[in-house]
Amino acid sequence: MMIDIEYVKPGEIEKRSFEIISNELEQRGIILPKEQELITKRAIHTSADFDYADTLCYSDGAVRGAMELIKNGADIVTDTNMALSGINKKVLETYGGKAHCFMADEQVAEEANKRGMTRASVSMEKALEINKPVIFAIGNAPTALISLYENMQAGKRKPDFIIGVPVGFVNVEAAKELFINSDVPYIINRGRKGGSNIAAAICNALIYMVRDDREV
């Protein structure tokens, strides 16, 4: 059996991957909106899953709005340390932003245990105390999205931007729909798919678009 190995220089692997993604999208007859293209392709690149070309949803002006937030020093809050570790914090910090995850915070754990809530829910309450614009990148816990929505409905702080891509089965789809039906700007993946890696990939796509001064 002959195995066809394509030899690619280490520094060109990502570029070659995106070429393959572009070719396969073209073969499938999928044309991505220009302003969404790099973000959707990075989600596909991270997951090798072309379903994201169909299921990633963007509110009107979402990409431009998120880029403006990053340019103006917005922080990013994630619901997992895995997503936090995947975000390019060095580039984000050049614009005055920081990335946070409060899941390992001792006070969050104590409060969650006392109130019988998930740490993800309580960590969002803590994140809402950040006194500057925040992009919430949720890749694991639908309860994080639900907490943000319930706080907003209670008259507390409205999220500046939602990246909603939690993965799983329990309340995952319903939690995403809460924000799709709200007036909060968002990038959300409909359905069960998502994950911390997808949340980080979307954040990085936006950060790199700002760095490269992309116009949308």
Q: How would you characterize this protein structure?
A:
This protein has 216 residues and is of the alpha/beta class. The protein has a single domain (55-211), classed as Rossmann fold (3-Layer(aba) Sandwich). 51% of the residues lie in helices and 11% in strands. The protein has helices spanning 13-27, 34-47, 52-55, 62-71, 81-86, 89-93, 106-115, 119-127, 142-153, 172-180, 196-211; strands spanning 56-58, 75-78, 99-101, 134-138, 161-164, 186-189. A six-stranded mixed beta sheet has the order 1-6-5-4-2-3, sandwiched between helices. The protein is globular, with a radius of gyration of 18 Å.
Brief synopsis:
This protein is an alpha/beta fold. The protein is built from 11 helices and 6 strands. The chain has helices spanning 13-27, 34-47, 52-55, 62-71, 81-86, 89-93, 106-115, 119-127, 142-153, 172-180, 196-211, and strands at 56-58, 75-78, 99-101, 134-138, 161-164, 186-189.
User: How is the main sheet built?
Assistant: 6 strands, mixed
Return the average pLDDT rounded to an integer.
Answer: 94
Q: Tell me what the CATH architecture is.
A: 3-Layer(aba) Sandwich
What letter string, H or E per element, gives the SSE order? HHHEHEHHEHHEHEHEH
Please name the fourth-level CATH homologous superfamily: Cobalamin biosynthesis CobH/CbiC, precorrin-8X methylmutase
Radius of gyration using CA atoms only: 18 Å
Instruction: Quote the distance from N terminus to C terminus.
Output: 47 Å
Q: Based on CA inertia axes, which overall geometry fits?
A: globular
Which bin fits the share of residues in helices? 40-55%
Structural class designation: alpha/beta
* Annotation, overall tally of beta strands: 6
For the record, what CATH class applies? Alpha Beta
Unreliable spans: none
In order across it, which strands form the biggest sheet? 1-6-5-4-2-3
Question: What amount of the residues lies in strands?
Answer: 5-15%
